[in-house]
Specification:
Blueprint lengths: L6 E6 L6 E6 L2 H7 L14 H8 L14 E6 L5 H5 L23 E6 L5 H20 L3 E5 L4 H7 L5 E9 L5 E6 L8 E2 L5 E6 L7
Parallel strand pairs: 7-9
Antiparallel strand pairs: 1-2, 3-4, 4-6, 5-6, 8-9
Helix pairs in contact: 2-4
The structure holds flavin mononucleotide.
The site of flavin mononucleotide has 14 residues, from strand 5.
Length: 211
């Protein structure tokens, strides 16, 4: 079996509705699939309800002192995605490619804001929230990326945000081939692409992460 932890779960949709079998992947599989995508399928439109489902995982995650200071602005194709695109950067390590390629731009975003000034603990909450949401998106058959390189002032002004935006997630159906590549400590860690366009993401072997 490809996924040793595959389990089946029955979910009911509405009262007395028919039962649907939902296959759940192991956390290992989800984490492997959860790569940072910088190109998306244009013919797949992410709906607001999908973003709502993704944000809902925040009711189940850890939070420093359980303060839950993060808030989320949902942006879809028809509610300002084009403005976000003009004010963010993807693929800083591959500047010559000018990612995203035309017609592969992401068109749905979750802007993560904090109700309090940024501190170490806000940032830890932020990382937990961002990774949890991307894993949920992956479970839903979607892909995404965290985006820290964006014009905060412009995004705040455009969406009339009451709180400081700290990070954005792009969400969509990825159209890229991305592979993890185990490397030794000291080797190059920058992601790169081969002639076919496959992206390789070097990750230090787990044995070398233990001190
Ligand atoms: C906090 C944070 C901010 C990031 N910001 C950007 C960004 O602005 N643009 C971008 O292309 N990638 C961004 N990334 C994605 C990283 O480049 C990516 O995680 C890294 O290359 C490893 O690839 P992987 O996520 O597929 O493992 C960000 C990642 C993190 C964790």
């Amino acid at each position: 079996m490809a996924d040793g932890y595959l389990e089946k779960k029955f979910e009911e949709f509405g009262q007395g509705a028919k039962k649907t079998v939902v296959k759940h992947s192991s956390i290992e599989t989800l984490m492997e699939k959860n790569r940072s995508f910088r190109g998306y399928k244009k013919d797949y439109v992410v709906k607001r309800e999908m973003l709502e489902r993704i944000v809902s995982v925040n009711t189940k995650i850890a939070s420093a002192k359980n303060q839950q200071v993060l808030r989320f602005k949902l942006v879809t194709k028809d509610t300002g995605a084009d403005i976000i695109l003009q004010n963010m950067k993807l693929g800083g390590l591959l500047p010559e490619l000018h990612l995203p390629f035309p017609d592969t731009e992401p068109e749905a975003f979750i802007i993560i804001c904090s109700t309090v000034p940024e501190t170490k603990f806000v940032d830890i909450d932020l990382g937990i929230a961002a990774q949890s949401m991307l894993l949920k998106a992956t479970e839903m058959g979607l892909n995404g990326i965290m985006i820290g390189a964006f014009n905060k002032a412009k995004i705040t002004e455009t969406f009339d945000l009451p709180y400081e935006p700290l990070l954005m997630l792009a969400i969509g159906k990825g159209n890229e081939k991305i592979k993890l590549q185990p490397v030794d400590e000291g080797e190059k860690l920058a992601y790169y692409r081969d002639e076919q366009g496959t992206q390789f993401v070097p990750k230090i072997r787990w044995e070398q992460l233990i001190i």
